[in-house]
Amino acid sequence: MEGISAADEPGTPAEVANLYHLLTRINRTLRTRGQSRNLSAGLASALWTIISHAPIRLSTLAERESVSAPTMSRIVAALEDRGFVERTPDPADGRARLLNPTPAGTGLIADSRTRRAQLLAEALDGLDPDDRVTVGRGVTLLADALGMT
């Protein structure tokens, strides 16, 4: 790995820090090169979660995104202002509102996913077949270890 000396053993703080740094850079590269309509990472993440879990209450969305309700309220307002999200009455509780993506919001995320997937595919195409298998296996193992799969 880049930045790790032969003296660093797997799982050491230096290796973990380097891996975290590389994952952050990969994520940032995919996000910035695959970005459309200048949607910030926070807005894109919230919209992605709304699409994946709609209809969803703001409080549940805030919990899933690990932010406070007031912060999420501002994020949702920005998504609403851009026409990506709409609020509808909750049939179980007339006082509450549910968040749903609009077709424009769903289209935006679909386009972002496609662009990011294309960037990732291009990067993987530059690797030899054995390295592609290694990357896929490593990412899958890491996702499993983090409880993501």
Count of helical stretches: 6
Poorly predicted ranges (pLDDT <50, ≥5 residues)? none
- The geometry reads as elongated
User: In what range is the share of β-strand residues?
Assistant: 5-15%
What separation lies between the terminal Cα atoms?
A: 25 Å
Main sheet: strand order: 1-3-2
Strand count, sense and closure of the main sheet?
Answer: 3 strands, antiparallel
Descriptive report:
- With 149 residues, the chain is mostly helical.
- The protein contains six helices and three strands; from the N terminus they run H-H-E-H-H-E-E-H-H.
- The chain has helices at residues 13-33, 41-53, 58-65, 69-81, 103-125, 129-145, and strands spanning 56-57, 85-90, 93-101.
- Strands 1-3-2 form a three-stranded antiparallel beta sheet.
- A hairpin with a 2-residue loop joins strand 2 (85-90) and strand 3 (93-101).
- Helix 2 packs across helix 4.
- It is elongated and about 55 Å long.
- 13% of the residues are buried.
- The model has no long low-confidence stretch (mean pLDDT 88).
